[in-house]
Amino acid sequence: MMVPLMPHFTPLDLHSREFLEDPAPTLAWMREHDPVHRSAYGYWLLTRYDDVAAALRDPRLSSEWTKKGSLPGVSQRHRGAPDLDDPFVRAQQVVLHSFNMKDAPSHTRIRVLVQQAFGRAAVDEQRGRVTELVRDCIEHGMEQGALDLVTELAFPLTITVASEMIGIPADARERFRASFEDTERLGDPTATAEQHEAARQALVWQLDFIGEVVEERRRHPQHDLVSALVHAEASGETLTNNEILAALLTLYTAAGTTTERMISSGMLLLLQHPEQWSAVRRDPASIGAAVTEILRYHHPNQQTTTPRLALEDVEVRGMVIPTGSTVRVALGAANRDPSRWEQPERFDITRPELVSLGFGQGIHYCIGAPLARMQTQVAIELLAADCPDLTLMDRDVRHDPRRMDRYERVLVTLGR
Question: In sequence order, which residues have a C-beta less than 8 Å from that of residue 247 and are 6 or more positions away?
Fold first, then answer.
């Protein structure tokens, strides 16, 4: 169904709950009428496919937020040198060492060292464990008579895999995952003072926690990603402690929190389109195409990757984005650009495959993409094979008030 672009359409506040419940109409209007949008919150937002793809590769739009001294969207309380006696300032300085907040050549050096955990061989090694975890979740659903694809499949699957890769102890995994819900508010201009403070405390706790894990692996190496990074060497270089800590937080997000939404939302899309779910069940070979279309059609919040910093004036479609500006790119809007896809608002797993921007592009292409695809494909494959009578129970699926880029629950019956 095409989104109507009526002249009287009034775009919603991009940070309002109403927008986050259904971002597509506003983003479609912006893509057509205001593709280089100057937000009331101070950043610029690009929504057309060509502009977004170009921005992701433009060296004038930097990912290196050390040039500004703070995380994207987080204001500096004091000008001048950072106050390293402040625990949050120290934590923020660590995160700024993440490879997804670096430009080449620093980004390249760090990414080469962490890539080993997400290469094809490493992902293939994880397939057996992913299959085992999905089957356990399905068996639990069979016993209960129903399964919540969010809390009883996507969460335990992706968080277990990410935690095992990194070496997060089982008794700490839920708190570690939940802390990311708080830190998501760091760059949210609509968050309250209390929410910002909770986000700051959560980031400090994350860095303290993962720092203890790293020190333990220095003393007692294990077969996990932390030990690998501590001892990794490439071209005679090793990672600094701050780079290890920041990389682990970034990789946890890539391996866990993003993929959980892809799995539950992807299954919801298939169940909301019964003819396409039937096609997947009839032909397992179509699951790869289904995952590709899920990635194009459903993006967690439709609008952003790590924001970019304009190092100089950048002109886009006659608009000049001034030096020092924050630039965000709407991946979800770009993936529904009618200049790129025919009937882009239609979810269709049989459409000809074109390169979507769901995992980004350029040197910052999502390092966890192969693992995310594999986990999503295995989950769909086993649900289709083992649950022929799988049925969506709740037609009125709501967004999670704690994280508006995912659903609160997707409840299904499995049958036998």
Answer: 98, 99, 110, 114, 229, 239
Measure CA of the first residue to CA of the last residue in the chain; give whole Å. Answer: 34
Return d(Cα 149, Cα 312) in angstroms, integer.
45
CA distances from 83 to 69, 72, 170 (A): 11, 18, 35
Distance CA 155, CA 136 (A): 13
User: How large a percentage of the chain has pLDDT more than 70?
Assistant: 91
DSSP H helical segments within 273-407, as ranges?
274-282, 287-297, 331-334, 369-386
Tokens (6 digits) for 82: 């950072």
Cα–Cα distance, 414 to 291 (Å, whole number): 21
The residue that leads in pLDDT, 314 or 358, is 314
pLDDT for the residue numbered 287 = 96
Longest dimension (CA), the chain: 65
Per-residue pLDDT tens over the stretch 114-155: 887 777 788 888 999 999 999 999 999 999 989 999 999 999
Q: Helices marked H in 105-240 — which ranges?
A: 106-114, 120-144, 155-166, 173-183, 193-219, 225-231
pLDDT at 384 over 50: yes
Between CA 292 and CA 349 the distance in angstroms is: 8
Query: Tokens standing for 72?
Result: 């994207």
pTM of structure:
0.88
Residues 238, 359 contacting (CB under 8 angstroms): no
Residue from 339, 259, 261, 266 nearest 301 by CA: 261
Nearest-angstrom CA–CA distance, 152 and 136: 10
Check residues 185 and 293 and name the one with the higher pLDDT. Answer: 293
- The first and second tokens of residue 352, run together, are 């000809």
pLDDT > 50? residue 348: yes
Domains assigned to the chain: 23-78+87-411 (1.10.630.10)
**What radius of gyration, in Å, describes the C-alpha atoms of the chain?**
21
Collapsed DSSP state (helix, strand, coil) of residue 169: coil
